[in-house]
Amino acid sequence: MHLLAMAISTHNGIRLAELGSALAAVAGGLLALGAVTPFGRRGGMFLAGVALAAAGVLLVVATRWGGFG
């Protein structure tokens, strides 16, 4: 973890946070699409769950080791 902390600068931490937020927005769109269309229900819900999990990990890494928080 120390190597991870040394590798992430403040600028990269901000980029990770932006990427995590964008993934959360995509997940919200997939959830909305899955709720409206019957064909996108299973796939959309699965991809939304994966995107939310990835967004959460990116936001935690950016907050913890990104130099802001």
What is the string of SSEs from the N terminus onward? HHH
Overall shape: it is elongated
Contiguous uncertain segments of 5+ residues: none
Distance between the termini: 17 Å
Helix content: over 70%
Number of helical segments with 4 or more residues: 3
Structural class: mainly alpha
Count every beta strand, where a strand is a DSSP E run of 2 or more residues: 0
Summarize the structure.
The protein has 69 residues and is an all-alpha fold. The protein is built from 3 helices and no strands. α2 (10-36) runs antiparallel to α3 (41-65).
Overview features:
84% helix, 69 residues, mainly alpha, 3 helices
Please explain how this structure is put together:
By secondary structure, the chain is an all-alpha fold. Helix 2 runs antiparallel to helix 3. The protein has a domain of 48 residues. It starts with a helix and ends with a helix.
Ordered list of secondary-structure elements with their pairings:
Elements: H1 2-7, H2 10-36, H3 41-65
Helix pairs in contact: 2-3
